């Protein structure tokens, strides 16, 4: 194999596929990046067997020539060093040549690296997916939906299916749901698809979505999502992101959302964020994050929190509206804060259904998102 | 004690004195900030017994009224939470009131914190220093001198005196020296002082200087430095920074600097920085940071580094001048890189005195700084 490539383009491709690679993988060849040159262009692959990322750099596009391939071939180079090496090379182009025993020579400017490569024949093949179940979604919207749900997945392996985000599609509407059984985040959006497409119990590992999100930007362009029994594939212009799906039955969450309300509060999101951040300074120290809220008159709620060691805090927030029964309730303030931080609206509403029942937080300006929380018993 | 204070001014003072506080101090009262209000203003103190920082906020200055003191007094409040609390308070002012049992009430906007305080009588007194040995230096210059030497102190406690920077004054010239016995950094500057002042073996802990540096900015104003047998005090406008000095005899370093040279190289600092960063990618993995340099013709030096696992790198750097004997030498590349990063000049010169002898790196445009290194044997 021998080729010369535009350095910037190569660095970007290497950084993208490196996101899939776990330096501590027990499968030696997966600690490397697979580089494959053929007449169409260069293909880079990184994988930790849960996630695989493939990046393609064409020989040229309308704008520019990226690549000159003198001799096709392939090699696997250790990712841990290779990423830093290509980032620090001095020239505008990089020449890579592989000789016997997968010995690779990397040249750029006055610099020559000789790197020990691995056998590309040992590298596992990427799954081939049948594309009969697929839909399209703008990149920025998918990125938002991930951000607004993935924080709520469970970090505990006791119920593995809860470490993923559940994807459902019904009548052109896609819904993401995440829950760790104490809180639930739900976000939906219209997508471009065949009206007959119906998907349920497609559970994508939270970690995969977090990595996917890091290689996405706020672009308007459509991403194609292909779903099979065991895999999901996100297809970008020059990038393919594969993730395995989680086994198991995701809990039915629709009936969990209360349909009536006893106490209804509307307030500025930022007022609540700041009050919770202050109150959490004390309850974080007590390690339980418990915050107490009570209604205090027509348009005030009182927030308190106590730590035996440090002391206590009490503050009143003016709310835009407060209707229904008087209420005293305690909850995990950090969970609420996590949710408030992904709500982009300035005003939120909270529907309580009693001190011991779950309550719902929503943005006030649209109904595509809700967050559900269990209260905490404090006696 | 009861007072109302400008929040911004108070936050800054609290953050400054907090730099001295170690949350893991075994002396309970030192985990707190001492707050003392009298008719002149408010004094804040933080200390870990090695470093003490005192910040003073006057009742008012020409610009503004900062403080209203209703009742003088003092209290100690736990730093770990107090700093975050005052930063997150919503109002422009903060009211603090201390009642019985050192119970403090902190009010700002609609927020009330009740905090458990500690007895200020238990707080150790700051040292009283006689000001007979003192000099003045511009803040920005002191900050530069710290940055340019403190990285070279030893991190090992086997020779405690090497964990500090040695301060000397002779005929109005101050010199900072730091060494870990493999490398040495030396920086000098003219200071404002009585011509008769002569100081030697004043060893300030590296950690103290690092903390001092963090509260300094690039201002032109003069700082007064007061030196005693066991303590040094840096006096700012409203801040006093005390550090204990290290016991023991600092090694005599003047004779260590070679006076003649066998091979002399002048080159762009940035060319060497980038080549070392690349070469260190491999030798860092081998954990020894060994870089090899050899002269390669009239105006070239060759840099190489090898890792059994990854491979090797070789590159040539064009130098501005190269005089004297041919040379092959190996050294700890990370040590050189640390020094190059604090040299602000674009061009540097290196004086080698043979493959097994110490060599000197200097900026080319002034003689107030030098860095000395031992080579490494590679056979």
From TrEMBL, chains A, B:
GO annotation, cellular component aspect: cytoplasm; DNA polymerase III complex
Q: Which residues form the DNA polymerase III beta sliding clamp N-terminal domain?
A: 1-127
Annotated DNA polymerase III beta sliding clamp central domain residues: 137-251
Q: What is its main location?
A: cytoplasm
- Could you tell me which Pfam families the record lists for this protein? DNA_pol3_beta, DNA_pol3_beta_2, DNA_pol3_beta_3
Note the superkingdom of the native organism: Bacteria
GO terms of biological process kind: DNA strand elongation involved in DNA replication
The record's annotation in CDD domains points to: beta_clamp
Cross-referenced SUPFAM superfamilies, in alphabetical order?
DNA clamp
Location in the cell: Cytoplasm
Keyword Ubl conjugation annotated: no
Q: Which UniProt keywords apply?
A: Cytoplasm, DNA replication, DNA-binding, DNA-directed DNA polymerase, Nucleotidyltransferase, Transferase
Q: Which GO terms describe its molecular function?
A: 3'-5' exonuclease activity; DNA binding; DNA-directed DNA polymerase activity
- DNA polymerase III beta sliding clamp C-terminal domain location is 255-376
Q: Which family does it belong to?
A: Belongs to the beta sliding clamp family.
How it assembles, according to the record, is: Forms a ring-shaped head-to-tail homodimer around DNA.
Q: Tell me, in a sentence or two, what this protein's role is.
A: Confers DNA tethering and processivity to DNA polymerases and other proteins. Acts as a clamp, forming a ring around DNA (a reaction catalyzed by the clamp-loading complex) which diffuses in an ATP-independent manner freely and bidirectionally along dsDNA. Initially characterized for its ability to contact the catalytic subunit of DNA polymerase III (Pol III), a complex, multichain enzyme responsible for most of the replicative synthesis in bacteria; Pol III exhibits 3'-5' exonuclease proofreading activity.
> What's the protein name?
Beta sliding clamp
**Species of origin:** Salsuginibacillus halophilus
């Amino acid at each position: 194999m021998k080729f010369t490539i535009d350095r910037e383009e190569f660095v970007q491709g290497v950084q993208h596929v490196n996101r899939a690679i776990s330096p501590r993988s027990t499968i030696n060849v997966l600690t490397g990046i697979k580089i494959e040159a053929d007449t169409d262009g260069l293909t880079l692959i990184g994988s930790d067997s849960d996630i695989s990322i493939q990046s393609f750099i064409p020989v040229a596009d309308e704008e520019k020539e990226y690549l000159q391939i003198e001799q096709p071939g392939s090699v696997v180079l250790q990712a841990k060093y290779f990423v830093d090496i290509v980032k620090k090379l001095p020239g505008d182009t990089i020449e890579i040549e592989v000789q016997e025993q997968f010995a690779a020579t990397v040249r750029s400017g006055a610099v020559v690296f000789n790197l020990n490569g691995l056998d590309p024949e040992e590298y596992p093949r990427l799954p081939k997916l049948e594309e009969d179940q697929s839909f399209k979604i703008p990149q920025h919207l998918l990125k938002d939906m991930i951000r607004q749900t993935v924080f709520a997945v469970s970090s505990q392996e006791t119920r593995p299916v809860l470490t993923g985000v559940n994807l459902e599609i019904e009548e052109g509407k896609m819904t993401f749901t995440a829950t760790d059984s104490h809180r639930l985040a739900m976000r939906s959006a219209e997508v471009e698809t065949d009206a007959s497409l119906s998907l349920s119990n497609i559970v994508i590992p939270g970690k995969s979505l977090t990595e996917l999100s890091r290689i996405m930007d706020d672009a308007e362009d459509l991403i194609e999502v292909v779903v099979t029994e065991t895999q999901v594939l996100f297809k970008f212009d020059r990038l393919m992101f594969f993730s395995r799906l989680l086994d198991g039955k995701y809990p039915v969450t629709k009936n969990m959302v209360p349909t009536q309300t006893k106490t209804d509060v509307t307030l500025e999101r930022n007022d609540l964020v700041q009050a919770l951040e202050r109150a959490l300074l004390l309850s974080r120290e007590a390690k339980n994050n418990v915050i107490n809220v009570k209604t205090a008159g027509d348009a005030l709620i009182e927030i308190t929190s106590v730590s035996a060691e440090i002391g206590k805090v009490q503050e009143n927030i003016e709310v835009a509206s407060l209707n229904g029964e008087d209420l005293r309730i305690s909850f995990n303030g950090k969970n609420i804060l996590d949710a408030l931080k992904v709500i982009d609206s300035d005003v939120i509403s909270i529907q309580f259904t009693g001190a011991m029942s779950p309550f719902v937080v929503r943005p006030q300006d649209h109904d595509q998102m809700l967050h559900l929380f269990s209260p905490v018993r404090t006696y």
